Amino acid sequence: MRERRVLLTLALVTTVTAVVSSLGAPLVPAVAARYEVAVASAQWALTATLLAGAVATPVVGRLGNGRLRRPVVLGGLATVLAGCVLAALPLGFGALVAGRALQGVGLALVPLALAAARDTWRGDRLPRVLGLLSVTTVAGAGVGYPVTALVAEHLGLAGAYWFGAALVAITLILAVLDLPVARDSAVQPVDVPGALLLSLGMTAALLAVSQGDAWGWLAPVTLGLLAVGAALLAGWVRRTLRTGHPLVDLRLARRPGVVGPHLVAMALGASMYALLTLVVVVVQAEPGTGATSGDDGYGLGLGIAAAGLVLVPYSVASVAGNQVARRVARRLGPGVVLPVGCAAFAVALGQVALSHQRLWQVLVAMALGGLGSGFTFSSIPALLVPHVPRTETASALAFNQLMRYLGFSVGSALSVALLVALGDDDAALRATLGSFALLCLAAGLVNGATAARSRRA
């Protein structure tokens, strides 16, 4: 009975990531309309969450790696709850973005839930529990997208965030009652200056990218933010290579056989959120949006609930792709899975670029993208682990998670910025999606080249 309650609690903790995600992508056009801001600005309701998750993941992972795990998880859930409440209150667009950033802390709680499972279960049950917790993050999004979108359509944006707050509050109460205490008493130091350099550098760069069309790409503020962002990120790299307790081990990330999977994680992460973002824009835009002479435009004119339902095939296919990829890896080897995933995702982007005039075309592309995502992200750990020492496995996987979240942030901000900069018409949509498709193919080729070098070495 006790183990069942712990499992339910851990499953709800991992589902927080799905709740955070489902309160983002489908609601971006509604945020733009509600606060009368451009879609590129409204996109920060999603980008802020992903950026906060990218920075919080290594910090929370360090803090929660010992006896502080339970208070860190409880504090993280309380932070997500505060973010949902802040986003729900009628305090303006700035408060909404701030609330969404606080919700991003929830993305960092999954590794701690998995660590709690490792402390609780042993033997044959442990792999099944870990698999269940991993699947809930994707399957939960499949349920969360249409549910939160339906709530938003009937109760408005505030209703969607109050709904999220209720779910997180229930999770927090159960975590207080049943979350186990960590067995390991060690507490690892956190590089706070490094975390500040990373968060400020990424924020400056992404703000310049997302607002470059509105401000002017050669405007002093745009160029200044890009320069400041680059300088801060360079400072973070320098500090990470010199400090004894970095957030992530960049030296380990440069090893042969490791570089490729990290690059794929960032490229596929960016492409994934470009696909999710632009599909939501296409589904909700009015018919003929962005039309030019001889062009019917790209809008389907459907509501928020439809946008949420469109994302369900992606989530379901991601889970299925994860299962199929394991069988393919057992028969043909893990090295085959990642290139297939990259290619499938590229085809999905190309499908939306060329054929998005009917809803069924978008649904087929989303299902194919989900398969590509399941193939790709399920194969990365198997490719990384053989190339790193056993004692450094956690560090390598943490860096890959960071690269994935940074990719999410870049894709979220860059996709809309490119669409606007290229003209916000059907040709621009195709060019933007095509660019990310080429990025997926390039990432697969680079991984193949680095893997070949690693085998020769």
UniProtKB/TrEMBL annotation:
Keywords of the record: Cell membrane, Membrane, Transmembrane, Transmembrane helix, Transport
Transmembrane segments: 40-60, 72-91, 97-117, 129-148, 160-180, 192-209, 215-237, 258-285, 297-320, 332-354, 360-384, 405-422, 428-446
Highest classification ranks of the organism: Bacteria, Bacillati, Actinomycetota, Actinomycetes, Propionibacteriales
InterPro entries: MFS, MFS_dom, MFS_trans_sf, TAT_signal
Domain Major facilitator superfamily (MFS) profile stretches: 6-455
Highest taxon listed in the record's lineage: Bacteria
PANTHER family: BLR6921 PROTEIN (PTHR42718:SF46), MAJOR FACILITATOR SUPERFAMILY MULTIDRUG TRANSPORTER MFSC (PTHR42718)
Subcellular location: Cell membrane
Protein name: MFS transporter
Membrane topology: Multi-pass membrane protein
First-listed, main subcellular location of the protein, grouped into a coarse class: membrane
Keyword Lipid biosynthesis (UniProt): no
